[in-house]
Amino acid sequence: MTRVAIVTGGTRGIGAAISKALKAAGYKVAANYAGNDEAAARFRAETDIATYKWDVGDFDACAAGVAEVEKDLGPVDILVNNAGITRDGFLHKMTRDQWSSVIRTNLDSLFNMTRPVIGGMRDRGFGRVIVISSINGQKGQIGQTNYAASKAGDIGFVKALALEGAAKNITANVIAPGYVLTEMVAAMDSKVLETRVLPLIPTGRLGQPEEVARAVLFLVSDDAGYITGSTLTINGGQHMV
Ligand code: NDP
């Protein structure tokens, strides 16, 4: 039986690498995205992976999106909560919109997406939930009170979910990447990257999206059934917890 996976934000960056790795490993994959139709069309053409547009911050849209995926591909066994945004600013200048858009997309999405799939996973006695957090949720970052709060929230969510799912063969784990070369990081000032970020990374380089994808592949496998509630850091040694 082929397992079905949803990857939120699965058409670009880390999510795209995760979608591709899951497909290459034989899973049926649904790659969700928010609104960049061009990128999604390119991704679809390149990978032949089905794409689905909905906003992970919208509870009803998530329920409808999951229902559509399940109609097309079958019941969801694997959920990778990857979609995320930044809206940086010092707290003393941060707007309510900067705060709430990040909490909505990065944190509300965990409830919105996991709620419609968790009952089925419990009924079928198998499930894998992965949340892509961030090094900055573990150690904080200037200008990112909103983002750090949302990414630290991932860890509490997963620990509680792991306890609830353990007896039903459902695991929940966090991956906390450091700096990974995607558009999110490429958008940073290159001088800041070279002078302030790279010197902090013991391996001396940025991570690649495929390096995160390979960890996801392991954590969703049957071999990883005893790993739950954990946070796996993938950060080149930048921050060890
Ligand atoms: P990208 O900006 O490259 O891609 C983001 C993806 O998420 C896109 O597919 C985007 O869709 C989708 N997305 C954004 N908002 C929503 C929404 N409301 N509903 C549905 N989909 C949405 O991000 P990255 O690949 O860099 O980051 C992926 C995850 O990894 C994020 O959670 C991020 O916080 C985390 N992370 C990234 C790091 C990095 O260095 N890159 C480091 C640590 C953590 P669309 O294409 O339509 O815009």
TrEMBL record:
Residues 3-178 form the Ketoreductase domain. The keyword Oxidoreductase applies. InterPro entries: Acetoacetyl-CoA_reductase, KR_dom, NAD(P)-bd_dom_sf, Sc_DH/Rdtase_CS, SDR, SDR_fam. SMART domains: PKS_KR. Its EC number is 1.1.1.36. It holds the Pfam family adh_short_C2. SUPFAM superfamilies: NAD(P)-binding Rossmann-fold domains. Keywords: Oxidoreductase. PANTHER family: 3-OXOACYL-(ACYL-CARRIER-PROTEIN) REDUCTASE (PTHR42879), 3-OXOACYL-[ACYL-CARRIER-PROTEIN] REDUCTASE FABG (PTHR42879:SF2). Belongs to the short-chain dehydrogenases/reductases (SDR) family. This is Acetoacetyl-CoA reductase. It comes from Labrys monachus.
